[in-house]
Amino acid sequence: MIEAVRPCVDGGRFPVKRTVGERMDVTADVFADGHDALRAVLRWRVAGADAWCEAPMQAAGNDVWRGSAHLKVLGRYQYGVVAWIDPFLTWRRDMQKKLAAGVAESVDFAVGAAQLRAARPRATQAQAAVLGGCLASLDGADAAARGQAALDDDLAAVMAELDERPFAVTSDLLEVVVDPELARFSSWYEMFPRSCGRPGQHATFADLEKRLPYVAGMGFDVLYLPPIHPIGRVHRKGPNNAPEARPDDSGSPWAIGAQEGGHTAVHPALGSLEDFRSLVRAAKGHGLQIALDIAFQAAPDHPWVEEHPEWFRQRPDGTVQYAENPPKKYQDIYPFDFECAAWRELWSALRSVLEFWIAEGVRVFRVDNPHTKCFRFWEWCIGTLKQDHPELLFLSEAFTRPKLMHRLAKLGFTQSYTYFPWRNHKQETVAYFTELCESGVLEFMRPNHWPNTPDILTEFLQTGGRAGFEIRLLLAATLGASYGIYGPAFELAEARAVREGSEEYLDSEKYQLRHWDLDSGDSLRRLVTRLNRIRREHPPLQWDTGLRFHGTTTEELLCFSKTAPAGGEAILVVVNLDPHHAHSGHVELQLESLGIGADEQFQVHDLLSGARYLWRTGRNYVALDPAAAAGHVFVVRRHLRREQDFDYFL
Amino acid sequence: MIEAVRPCVDGGRFPVKRTVGERMDVTADVFADGHDALRAVLRWRVAGADAWCEAPMQAAGNDVWRGSAHLKVLGRYQYGVVAWIDPFLTWRRDMQKKLAAGVAESVDFAVGAAQLRAARPRATQAQAAVLGGCLASLDGADAAARGQAALDDDLAAVMAELDERPFAVTSDLLEVVVDPELARFSSWYEMFPRSCGRPGQHATFADLEKRLPYVAGMGFDVLYLPPIHPIGRVHRKGPNNAPEARPDDSGSPWAIGAQEGGHTAVHPALGSLEDFRSLVRAAKGHGLQIALDIAFQAAPDHPWVEEHPEWFRQRPDGTVQYAENPPKKYQDIYPFDFECAAWRELWSALRSVLEFWIAEGVRVFRVDNPHTKCFRFWEWCIGTLKQDHPELLFLSEAFTRPKLMHRLAKLGFTQSYTYFPWRNHKQETVAYFTELCESGVLEFMRPNHWPNTPDILTEFLQTGGRAGFEIRLLLAATLGASYGIYGPAFELAEARAVREGSEEYLDSEKYQLRHWDLDSGDSLRRLVTRLNRIRREHPPLQWDTGLRFHGTTTEELLCFSKTAPAGGEAILVVVNLDPHHAHSGHVELQLESLGIGADEQFQVHDLLSGARYLWRTGRNYVALDPAAAAGHVFVVRRHLRREQDFDYFL
């Protein structure tokens, strides 16, 4: 019997996720009736390949068996478990006991000899030599030689090779999607390209190229741009979401499509498609992936509205149904009707949009509100695109209920935005991250934590001052393997909301150009740079697994450690969650999770400040003043010089 | 999307279990992309039936929906969830918001009117009248009438009836086996029929008939008999498992088969098949089911050994392979080779054994060591037999590793022996029962707790004296809905082991006749009788669900409560686990699980002693001397007379 093969999502309906080069541990409950000795292997292959890779599984107690698959290339794999009864191993195990107890009889040896004879026709010459030698002893009258032959190690090895796996059972096949490392460990920077030029002027891709050193210099991997397409003019919104735009207002980039084109066109003010290609090339030169925003919706003057009225929901009065969230109305946005009669053509056209940008060298997409589009569309669209391009990365922007977020991740999205922006206090932070890490969600969903976005200026950031931004940055960059900021609003600590009780920015870049003073002395740029370097240099920060919270004696101090699956160093983070006051207290380390024994002394080295402290078992004191530093990011160093290390000890 | 339909065992590979008349609560995660209003129903039917029963499901928060199926008859059912988008409900919900905000436009009414028109061809005359009236209003110019029609309750009801379930999705079908109530709530008594006669004489079924009033009088439902077949003479064991039997030794009933016959024959000394039929009839008259022991193995002189040598494993020297657990050898037992070439004939013959006894009126079987027989055999055998006889009950005697025990339950066994005999201390008892009740195991496995069996005289019973037997009886009868004792050894507190460190009885009835003094003044018969009556009178003790442990300030006091799924009274049990000393301390009640508010006073009424105590919130004092009583079985009575209940309060 094979039961409970893990990892497994929804009984195998959806693949689990890993990144290239990882070793995936697989466990299964394997057992049989009776007392026969069992063997089990884990097998796996890239989907579509003929041959299986195999690795033996080991019994780990309580009928749980464990094996490991090395996932060497990108793509979708299948994996499963095969288990069977090994008659020779059974016989050998029983003979060991009988010989030890002195109750082995001639017929017992004959039972084994019969197995050897049955295996002989399958043997190579070398194997046959081993079989022949042992058979002679088993058939002979010399008791010592018989016993020795029965337990001969070479014989056991040959019989294992010749094993025909009788009564083999095979688990249902499961799947794992193997993504590039960037899917697991990434640092994102979002910015509006039109705002990076001279004050008051609509910037271009060429201006953005000049900004690349700034972004890359901070250590980001992904530069994510809001939609770069022509912006609709019908019902265009003005600054601060004003219902009417003035003639020279730029409009929202998410109102996609105008007479200049739709989802495969570039806004003329940004430049040409050739300029975009140049940007993508230049970004790569800086180690940056350009991420495009995929917002599958249309402005009323999007060319498809006229060309394909059948893709939109028509109202009885002949008008097109615009987006609504009653009683709110969004007349500047027409949703596509994913379930319309012409859905095949619509779905195909939408996938073509992605194919177009893939052909232009884009590999990373941030998908706008995927939960308001047909779920089956995403599974089909992402699934088929990744067949040819397993390196693609899709970030799901679904700030919605947990089960919908989870479903989108299961359907194929590579990363997902999270509730991180609204988890500020210790208890809620611990609860949320514990749920993410311990409920099995990480098998299919990779969180990407954003302290801010153009839609989300949290009350914490509005009220916390510069220290508030530091705290949120520190948490995002260390709690999660992937995080992002919307800049330069973030590093410049832009905190003004459009009005009390709103999370919208005042003078939001969504509706107007902004100009940012990147050289402000208050910029968090140096902290961002340092954190991103620490992230690159320390593997524990590159994984969402291995997170463990530790107790603190003060409600305002949060303490957690991270370790990488391969082991090695531990990172220990302590953050003062209160941006307004200094706090001090003790952290209560669960040392075994850091690989430290009960009586050991060790050094914690703050990678932010450079300070070093000698700590030991149990409680250690921490004082953090947000005016000076929001937290510590320690690497735990275990090698300390003791009296034994010096000559005079001898 | 429908996810996570519960209850569910291994993704639907195995059925869950319920008993007839129960309402099965089913939950599922149901959600859709976008913001459409959803509806969902639970549906179920007896497997093979054409028509589905349906019950609406209600959203219970966090996208979990809940419904309930009434399982009225015995047998195997299918169940599943259907969910769909309800366009009219969506429109009505949005219109409520638009009307409240004063933003409803003519086209909004026209959208709804179009839905009514589309539904009209499907309407009955009565429904059409409602549709027509509302349509007139919706199409009209009277704003108030339009708004009223949009939200009309009759219209909503008619549209729900005419709903065509667009985009309906259906979950995979799951199965539930509905057993008789006895499967859930049963009290078993095991005894050796040959020992119930006059001293030194092999008793008969006729003698056993005379013993029925004794067993039924104690309140048992099931009288379970070790094998009643002819006993092998070859390699027969003597008293206390002596390797050689003397000519007049009776042998072990589990060494089945001799020249007089095999699994469908009756031991001549017990009587004839007609005598057995008489016993079954008489037992029914006393409210007792006769349970037979099914031990699928053969003595060397079982007729099948000669008739069907192909059903046994032959050794190279031409002898039959006897049972082994190296280095131990059981030459008196030949196992069947379930994987032999003639397995179809063997399996069929073994199932015929059950069919034979079913035809003789037996409905309850205790299966000996099922984990050493082929698992697929059991799934096929029990599954096919229950198609015609859904009332059958199979108790699995598999004292083996947890995953094997669970698998046997999944494969079809109705009840299972448990590790209860070896859970004596508070912590291990709480841990074991919590695991049983909270891990989902109860969905497929029904525990049957035995403090002793002919194979198991635990160290606790060997050392605990009469009080030890009382404690174990009290726990078995109240922790579990099903329990059993092997008597008269149990009620007479037989505690002598064959030797130090063994759980075997001295002079075990497995190998010899015994005579018991049922009228001993020390018999636990009265306590057994009282406990079985309490079990019958108090529904909380008839369910394994609803068990909750409560804290005590003393390690030796165990406290737990039980409630039935339908609610009603609670039973509260306190047991002194130490048979040697009196203990006292406080129990710390989690009152909300008893349906009692924080400040309430209540009465606990000991159903064993008749004593009543006034208790209230928090800690209450208990003192238990095992010389007087091992524990309390309280019913919690909430109605107390307070000052308000008397005239003079006014």
Can you put this structure into words, describing what you see?
The structure is a homodimer of 650-residue chains. Chain A is α/β, with parallel strands linked by helices and 650 residues long. Helices cover 28% and strands 24% of the residues of chain A. Chain A is built from 15 helices and 30 strands. In chain A, the strands form six sheets. The first copy, chain A, has an eight-stranded parallel sheet. An eight-stranded antiparallel sheet of chain A has the order 28-27-30-25-24-23-26-29, with helices on both faces. In chain A, strands 2, 4, 5, 8, 9 and 10 form a six-stranded mixed sheet that branches. The longest helix of chain A has 21 residues, at 459-479. The first copy, chain A, starts with a strand and ends in a 13-residue tail after the last strand. At the A-B interface, α1, α2 and α12 of A face α1, α2 and α11 of B.
Supply database-style keywords.
15 helices; globular; 8-stranded parallel beta sheet; 24% strand; homodimer; 8-stranded antiparallel beta sheet; alpha/beta; 650 residues
Write the layout of secondary structure elements.
Two copies of one chain form a homodimer.
Chain A: E1 2-6, E2 16-19, E3 23-30, E4 38-46, E5 53-56, E6 58-59, E7 64-70, E8 75-85, H1 87-101, H2 106-119, H3 125-139, H4 143-150, H5 153-162, E9 169-170, E10 174-179, H6 181-184, E11 186-190, H7 205-217, E12 222-225, H8 273-285, E13 289-294, E14 297-298, H9 303-307, E15 323-325, E16 328-330, E17 334-335, H10 343-359, E18 364-368, H11 375-388, E19 393-397, H12 402-411, E20 415-417, H13 426-438, E21 447-448, H14 459-479, E22 482-486, H15 525-537, E23 547-552, E24 557-564, E25 567-576, E26 583-588, E27 601-606, E28 612-616, E29 619-624, E30 631-637
Parallel strand pairs in A: 2-10, 11-12, 11-22, 12-13, 13-18, 18-19, 19-20, 20-21
Antiparallel strand pairs in A: 1-3, 3-7, 4-5, 4-8, 6-7, 8-9, 8-10, 14-17, 15-16, 23-24, 23-26, 24-25, 25-30, 26-29, 27-28, 27-30
Helix pairs in contact in A: 1-2, 2-3, 3-4, 3-5, 7-8, 14-15
